[in-house]
Amino acid sequence: MNQITVNNIDIDVVRKNIKNLHLAVYPPNGRVRIATPLRLDDEAIRLFAISKMSWIKKQISKFDSQERQLFREYVSGENHYFEGHRYLLNVIYQKGTPRVIIRNKTYLDLYVKPNSTRDQRERVLTKWYRQELKSKIPALIEKWQEIIGVEINDWEVKKMKTKWGTCKIESRRIWLNLELAKKTSHCLEYIIVHELVHLLERHHNDRFTSLMNKFLPTWRFSQKELNQFVLSHEHWSY
To answer: How far is 230 from 197, CA to CA, in rounded Å?
Structure first.
């Protein structure tokens, strides 16, 4: 990978055995990446970037204006998200099995042992997020496998800093970002459909878009909704 600079914007250039140029701007800081066929030189890529500069600046501006969460201490009074809603964290120190309970559609009650550390409180909440997300995935996968006409061998949830989901086509396995537990069910469904469609079309090309339009006509609204949520405090990098 090398880098070019256009209009004071650094652009990562990745050369692959592909037919067309692919441009993307990634959260949280608007990193720009162009995947290019092996045959194109930097000057051709630079001209392509110049032709797309208005769109690139618009995407970067969106990320710059997005609200970001502060570093989480997992103490009472913090705002935390679940299924697209914001809740007030209420930490309760007591003996017994740690757990999380939603109360009055307002509070996330986090029960932890006395003198628990910040990392221990985070692990309890993260475990709960994982369990809640994993409980919703099987039915959605079963539904959309039948609609799309594909079948995966396995799926898993994990923390990912760069993608909401990914599909390993050779092994027919999809991975879903744990952060989706904090988003609406529509966002989760959109990402599942997105990854399953990759079994029909590997690349984000016109055919991929056409398939998404066919199976989930509202996918662009879910994509926009997903991008409008509060960004994590983490520094995302690729």
So the answer is: 27
At 149, the pLDDT band (50, 70, 90 cuts) reads very high
10-51 pLDDT tens trace? 999 999 888 889 998 886 678 899 999 988 998 999 999 999
CB 124 within 8 A of CB 104: no
**Residue at 126: amino acid letter:** T
Distance CA 86, CA 235 (A): 22
The C-alpha atoms of residue 163 and residue 235 are separated, in whole angstroms, by: 13
**CA nearest to 72, candidates 35, 114, 125:** 125
Any idea what the Cα angle at residue 80 is, between residues 75 and 84, rounded to 5°? Answer: 170
Dihedral of alpha carbons 238, 45, 212, 219, sign: positive
Q: Are 89 and 110 in contact (CB under 8 A)?
A: yes
How far is Cα 127 from Cα 99, in angstroms, rounded to an integer? 9
Q: Give every CB contact of residue 75 below 8 A, 6+ residues apart in sequence.
A: 89, 91, 121
Q: By C-alpha distance, which of 107, 223, 207 is closest to 165?
A: 223
Which residues sit opposite 12 in a β-bridge? 3, 33
